[in-house]
Amino acid sequence: MGRLRGKLCVRCGTVTRASKPKPRKHAAADRKWSKAVRERDGHTCQRCSRPAGESAHIIRRGYKATRLNPDNGLALCHACADYLTRHPNEWREWLEKYMPGLAAEMAALAGAPIK
């Protein structure tokens, strides 16, 4: 017998079908953006100079004016991306220290607050 997929109902004991994950609306465009940002930055983390595996938006992805603009991204290694995600104040301070004006420029373009 094959392996059952889904969730077991604790009340009646039946197995519900696992739902397929919804396809992301902009997945291909996001991958292309991320690749362009990493290539532009030489696949090097812009914070610590280790090999970069991620690309981080300076202004949140929700703003159409800057979502796919490569200037709105930085290549980061996994450790730095995780750290800066968990410490947004340090992210802002780091941006202003090492890339003065970039966050403000992207925020003005998007009509958004700096994250």
Brief overview:
The chain has 5 helices and 4 strands. The protein has 115 residues and is an alpha+beta fold.
Could you characterize what this model shows?
This protein is an alpha+beta fold and 115 residues long. It has one domain. 41% of the residues lie in helices and 10% in strands. The radius of gyration is 19 Å and the shape is elongated. The mean pLDDT is 82.
Query: How many separate domains make up the residues?
Result: 1
Mean pLDDT value: 82
Q: Quick one: biggest sheet? A: 2 strands, antiparallel
**Main β-sheet, spatial strand arrangement:** 1-2
| Number of extended strands | 4
What Rg, in angstroms, do the CA atoms define?
19 Å
Helix content: 40-55%
Low-confidence segments, ≥5 residues, pLDDT <50?
Answer: none
Structural class of the helix and strand makeup? alpha+beta
Helical region count?
A: 5
> How much beta, percentage-wise?
5-15%
Spell out the helices and strands N to C: EEHEHEHHH
**Quaternary form:** single chain
Rough outline:
elongated
Query: Roughly how many Å apart are the termini?
Result: 51 Å
Sequence-ordered SSE layout with sheet pairings:
Elements (H helix, E strand, L loop, with lengths): L6 E2 L6 E2 L10 H14 L13 E4 L6 H4 L5 E4 L1 H9 L1 H11 L3 H9 L5
Antiparallel strand pairs: 1-2, 3-4
